[in-house]
Amino acid sequence: MRYTDNECGIVSYQALRGIANKLSSYLNMRNNEVNRAKKSVVWAYVWWFFGGIFGLHLFYLERDAHAFLTWSTFGGYGLGWLADITKIPRYVRDCNDDPKFLGELGERMRRNRKPPFSTSRFISAIMVGYLWGQLVMLAIPEDEVYGINWNPYFHWLIPLGVALGVWIVGNIGRERGKPWISIAVSYITYSSRWYFFDDSTWLSIMVFCSGLAFDTFSKEWRRTPRKKRSFCTRMSVLFFCAAIYCALWSSYFYFNGKITDSNGDEIPIHEALHHFFTSPWWTDLKQSLHDIYVYAQHHGWYEIWKQIIDLSDPQGEQNAYKVLGVGPTSSQSEITLKWRALSREFHPDKVKDPEKQRAAQERFMEIQQAYEILSNIKSKRRRKNKKSVEDT
């Protein structure tokens, strides 16, 4: 079958028209995707207003490192959150690769071989570096854990925390830099702790020198765009960083934190938690909550904290009474007699069965610990009462 010239022309025209329509549809689809992907200034301000102190507006604008720092410092101690009021439009243009913004950025790059000094960025690097270094130092247990003094080992992680804090601030936005020089300077200036015994002094020296080294030798322009990552990947990275950050704070509160009971004695939190699970508050939670409510109605909610502390038995006093079978009114001599009788009864040497010997050993240690707790408490109260009598 043969076509005439007119028929061939019609077929060619229709084919070209079909291709043009498909191309137009594809371009429209791509434009719609781009438009949907563009960030909105209005939405950025909405996220800033309702969750800016946790960095939600920065996460929306794909400034993940910036968002993490804002979250971990409660909005940059509030100042960073307020400062973002005027910066959000620029952040949106940056995220959307606005042609005018990119043109201005290119002009700055041509004028300056490296990013010029920024006072706000340098101060932020100093503050974050100091916070992270001090957090690592606080998280190190002061006392031995499992018979090991971890302080000499973990103390060497403080310079690393400082350098990483400086580095993460230096890599926000259109600037970047490698951390190696900052890490090296941190460890070099870490030696100042043997000359300045005040922690804040040598830590400040280390942070300042690390920040200055990064700003002088490592800082450069970010000339290539960041690689786009999926939402799940971004959330996974942020969750991992947040877990490490929370673990450091948890270590500080658990190992080094202290609470004060109604007698004015300081008890380490890890000991208070251990005793909490044997306290009346835990063993009879419903009744304890009712007692707290009744107490608050009569004495006011201001005194509720003391009631909670007493019921949680932070020193293990109530559990110690239960173990020895004595009461709060028992004298020291009565407690000692009961302790000696129980120690003889449950001494591990009297048990010949290997399977029962371990249980006897645990019971014996529980008795010794209960006696030690009650003896220390009685001794402290006698000294306090004696001092009160002498003062009067």
What does this structure look like?
- The structure is a single chain.
- The chain is mainly α.
- It has 20 helices and four strands.
- The strands form two sheets. It has a two-stranded antiparallel sheet. A two-stranded antiparallel sheet has the order 3-4.
- It is elongated, with a radius of gyration of 33 Å.
Q: How would the blueprint of this fold be written?
A:
Elements: H1 5-37, H2 41-51, H3 56-60, H4 64-72, H5 74-77, H6 79-95, H7 99-111, H8 119-139, H9 151-154, H10 158-170, E1 175-176, H11 180-189, H12 199-218, E2 220-221, H13 231-256, E3 258-260, E4 266-268, H14 269-276, H15 280-283, H16 285-299, H17 304-311, H18 317-324, H19 332-345, H20 354-391
Helix pairs in contact: 2-6, 4-13, 8-10, 8-12, 8-13, 10-11, 10-12, 11-12, 16-17, 18-20, 19-20
What would you say about this model in short?
The chain has 20 helices and four strands.
What labels describe this entry?
two-stranded antiparallel sheet; 20 helices; 3 domains; two-stranded antiparallel ribbon; Helix Hairpins; elongated; 392 residues; mainly alpha
